[in-house]
Design brief:
Structural class: alpha/beta
Pfam families: AMP-binding, AMP-binding_C
Number of helices: 12
Radius of gyration: 21 Å
Keywords: Ligase
CATH class of the largest domain: Alpha Beta
Low-confidence stretches: 385-390
CATH architecture of the largest domain: 3-Layer(aba) Sandwich
Largest sheet: 7 strands, mixed
Strand content: 25-35%
Helix content: 25-40%
Distance between the termini: 52 Å
Number of domains: 2
Organism: Meloidogyne enterolobii
GO biological process, one term: fatty acid metabolic process
Protein name: Medium-chain acyl-CoA ligase ACSF2, mitochondrial
Strand order of the largest sheet: 4-3-5-6-7-8-9
């Protein structure tokens, strides 16, 4: 519990620290390019951790939380350890970095009641050969965040792992991180289809290209404003001004839809959007559909250059163990069920180790594009995609 000297030093530091002092430089995950150092204050992260724990119900009953996420990212250090700390709950860290087997063992041995993870982490845990060997009966809740989560995966977390109170979170490093989070009182089928409601004391808006708020149900640029907004990017005022306006709205770069009940659905990122012959294609929509195929374990969709259409759809697919299907099988599965222009022109079957990931377990789609262009010999194709340097 700490020595007398530890308590003396803590008291001394408390006297010198102010809420708006910079607490840490949290580097963004770098899914779309080079990471930037989001500088967060004590006020940012302590309040965000408190409100995450409050919405998770950690103030009402004790939780033993398995946190396989790394502590050098907001998911692990703010949503994970700090949220547990301010509500006097228990953290279990299975390993220094994510290891599926270590996480499964920790859940079993420590009787964890909640489990955190990105979709990729949960896919790896559920797909591990030792997964059936452990007891998960202690689990009743969990949080999935960091990337769009397929509905089929959320359903498995609820039905197989017992996460009856599964919550989905959305946020960015720049917002400390959580801006939206499910409410457990919402029906389970509702919770797994969106990223929840705006967090307490934050504002959100969905706007068009002119900055005007769009009606509910329409897509637009998701903006966030409030206490959680970062101090700025470390030593990069230009990048800071590009995402935070004088009105203090943070431009997330994500495409969102506000539903009638106030929840928000994330359609994708503007940088990931595929423009095929003038048609806008949101990779998340295609991924959510293909993921329902019984042979598919994971799917990621990107755009690759095409001389006629500018861009076309390319899908990276990882099959479940023992499954054998062809490109034609996938296209037949899609035909007539999604728009013809959303059906992948290119399908690349991949192993689990082929997907380029950030250190926090998110897929780096900009690297996938470059790999795909090389494999498909599309580097020299003339299109707006290549001409734009994408």
């Amino acid at each position: 519990m700490g020595t007398v000297e530890d308590r003396r030093r803590l008291a001394q530091n408390e006297a010198n620290v102010q809420p708006d002092d910079q607490a840490n430089i949290q580097y963004t995950s770098g899914t779309t390019g080079k990471p930037k150092g989001a500088t967060l204050t004590h006020h940012n992260i302590v309040n965000n951790a408190y409100f995450v724990g409050l919405r998770a119900g950690y103030h009402e009953k004790r939780a033993i939380i398995c946190i396989p996420n790394p502590l050098y990212h907001c998911f692990g250090c703010v949503m994970g350890s700090l949220a547990a700390l301010v509500h006097f709950n228990t953290c279990v860290f299975p390993a220094p970095s994510f290891e599926p087997l270590a996480a499964l063992e920790a859940i079993h041995e420590e009787r964890c009641t909640a489990v955190y993870g990105t979709p990729t982490m949960f896919i790896d845990m559920l797909g591990h050969e030792e997964y059936p060997s452990f007891d998960y009966s202690s689990i009743h809740s969990g949080i999935v965040a960091g990337a769009p989560c397929p509905v089929t995966l959320c359903s498995r977390l609820v039905n197989e792992l017992g996460m009856k109170n599964l919550q989905v979170c959305y946020g960015t490093t720049e917002t400390s991180p959580v801006s939206f989070m499910s409410i457990c009182d919402d029906p389970p089928e509702e919770r797994i289809r969106n990223v929840g409601h705006i967090m307490d004391h934050l504002e959100a808006a969905i706007v068009d290209a002119d900055g005007k708020i769009v009606p509910r149900g329409q897509r637009g640029d998701l903006l966030i404003r409030g206490y959680s907004l970062m101090y700025g990017y470390w030593d990069n005022e230009e990048a800071t001004r590009a995402v935070i306006g004088k009105d203090r709205w943070y431009r997330s770069g994500d495409i969102g839809v506000m539903n009638e009940n106030g929840t928000v659905s994330i359609v994708g990122r503007y940088k990931d959007m595929i423009i095929r012959g003038g048609e806008n294609i949101y990779p998340t929509e295609v991924e959510q559909f293909i993921d329902k195929h019984p042979a598919v374990a994971d799917v990621q969709v990107i755009g690759v250059p095409d001389e006629r259409f500018g861009e076309v759809v390319c899908a990276w697919i990882r099959l479940k163990n023992g499954a054998t299907i062809t490109e034609s099988d996938i296209r037949e599965y899609c035909a007539g069920k999604i728009a013809h222009y959303k059906v992948p022109k290119y399908i690349l079957f991949k192993d689990i180790t082929d997907f380029p990931l950030t250190v926090t377990g998110k897929v780096k789609k900009f690297e996938m594009r470059e790999i795909s262009k090389r494999e498909l010999k599309l580097e020299n194709v003339k299109s707006h995609f290549n001409d734009a340097g994408m």
